[in-house]
Write a structure and sequence with these properties.
Pathway: Carbohydrate degradation; pentose phosphate pathway; D-ribose 5-phosphate from D-ribulose 5-phosphate (non-oxidative stage): step 1/1
Protein name: Ribose-5-phosphate isomerase A
Catalytic activity: aldehydo-D-ribose 5-phosphate = D-ribulose 5-phosphate
CATH topology of the largest domain: Rossmann fold
Keywords: Isomerase
Radius of gyration: 17 Å
Low-confidence stretches: none
Strand order of the largest sheet: 3-2-1-4-7-15-16
Bound molecules: ribulose-5-phosphate
Number of domains: 2
GO molecular function: ribose-5-phosphate isomerase activity
């Protein structure tokens, strides 16, 4: 590769995963998200595993990866607060509001993010949007409410589809299901999150407005990391 070749998406994920290490507080416990970008962060974190006490993880998949690399994983109930939570996003807007849950881990991600003083979001440029709604919005739901919630999204102009895995409804780490909703334009993320969270049967809506990013590290194709603070 020459210096002028644009970086691949995988290389960009590694770039921001590495850059996120600067936010890890030595001696502390790190909140760790889920997804292919966070996997790069976890791999980088292994290089400083002797400088941290461990991690609180947002998914079974991240827990397994952390443990395989020799990083201790604490239950969220063992920890009162975290200095930092590091995670990817499916979309992020100019205010740091995000859509998350492409990896079906949104509920635990929101719980671990709520413990943290600072949310550091790591993405590549393709995730930046002016208004949330381009990426199908993940919503974790209790199975018996699927049709009711689908009708409520239809009333807002959205089309909700049950997420499948190997031809069967995907089951989350919490034993629930995921609806992916297209056709929404989320102009007021805080109000939208508060509203949908109150619908009976909704476990978690994938809009992260109340737990928005404090910092976003954006990898650019030229190999730069841009830092946005909110
Ligand atoms: O919310 C998430 C998982 O539930 C991820 O952060 C989001 O889907 C981004 O993943 P990736 O880094 O693989 O693009």
């Amino acid at each position: 590769m020459t210096n002028s070749s644009p970086l691949t998406q995988d290389e960009l994920k590694a770039l921001v995963g590495q850059a996120a290490l600067q936010y890890v507080v030595p001696g502390g416990i790190v909140g760790v998200g889920t997804g292919s970008t966070v996997n790069k962060f976890i791999d980088a974190l292994a290089g400083m595993k002797n400088e941290i006490s461990g991690a609180v993880s947002s998914s079974v998949a991240s827990t397994e990866r952390l443990k395989a690399l020799g990083i201790a994983v604490f239950d969220a109930n063992e920890v009162e607060s975290l200095a930092v939570y590091i995670d990817g996003a499916d979309e992020i807007d100019r205010q740091g509001y995000m859509v998350k849950g492409g990896g079906a881990a949104l509920t635990r991600e929101k719980i671990v993010a709520a413990l943290a003083s600072r949310f550091v979001c790591i993405v590549d440029e393709s995730k930046l949007v002016p208004t949330l709604g381009r990426f199908p919005l993940p919503v974790e739901v209790i199975p018996m409410a699927v049709q009711h919630i689908t009708r409520r999204f239809a009333a807002l102009g959205g089309v909700a589809r049950l997420r499948l895995k190997d031809g069967q409804p995907l089951v989350t780490d919490n034993g629930q299901q995921i609806l992916d909703v297209t056709g929404l334009s989320i102009k007021d993320p805080s109000a939208f999150e508060s509203d949908v969270n109150q619908w009976p049967g909704v476990v978690t809506v994938g809009v992260f407005a109340h737990q928005k990013a404090s910092v976003c590290l954006v990898g650019t194709a030229q190999g730069m990391v841009k830092t946005f603070t909110y």
